[in-house]
Predict the structure.
Amino acid sequence: MHTSTPNCRVCGNQHQTRIGDLPLYLPGGQAPGDLLKCDVCGTWARSVNFDDPEIRTHFNVTSYTVPEREECMRSARVEFFRSIIDLASRFVHLPPSGLRVLDVGVAYGHLLELYHEAGAKCAAVEIVDRLRDRLSARGYEAYRSAQDIPAGAVFDVITTIDSFYYFEQPEDLLRQLNPHLKPEGVLILRLTNRTPLLRLLRALRWPITNDIFGDVKHNFTYRGIRSLLQRTSYRIERVILGEKKKVVPLSKWMYYKLSLIASHLSGLKLTPGIILVCRRSAAAE
């Protein structure tokens, strides 16, 4: 049974099914909201508007933006970020030295630090004011949104690592980034892949909580993200299911390995994370 809901931000479909309640926690309280599932592309989404200034206060106190967590996050992800740099270099056929790199949703800036050390010229998009101000003080070009990037600024590599699913309007973001990506450059998206688990829990009629859904706006299906990229003039050049060099607890490591094996055996995308390497399509050139 359908209720009155906004259109799907991924495929534009007017029919989304309400699954249940899913509030978003804010400093000092919470924002009530619904959990929705698109009937066409299968994407799951919160009903709360992530462009609302009050909702954005959530990002000031998350575990991936507060100063107390920075060194922990750095040690857990530094080798993973190195693998992203290596991946990008293989696709642009150039070493990091001299590249122009834009990281969207940069947080502490650890990926850009590594790029900068390797000789790349770096820029960032970050909505959290204190993080963006710190990046600017360290000499990076730092923008509050993709709309603020100067016309004519182009990049060899654009990355959105664990940030794309926070955007209220992902189609707008992709269209805004398109003219800033060189024709031979790459867009690298790293997305969590919780939709297999969400489908299982719904089939079992178990509750879907924030611990399971995450604090994100969207949980994309591969069908949905592929359609979205095609519609915004990108093509997927490589899908990577096996992520390397993340420091995770043993239980998560085992889950990653088992889900990777299951993905290869079934032909489905069951791993908890997916990396997409994309290029501008001919229609964008």
In short: The mean pLDDT is 93.
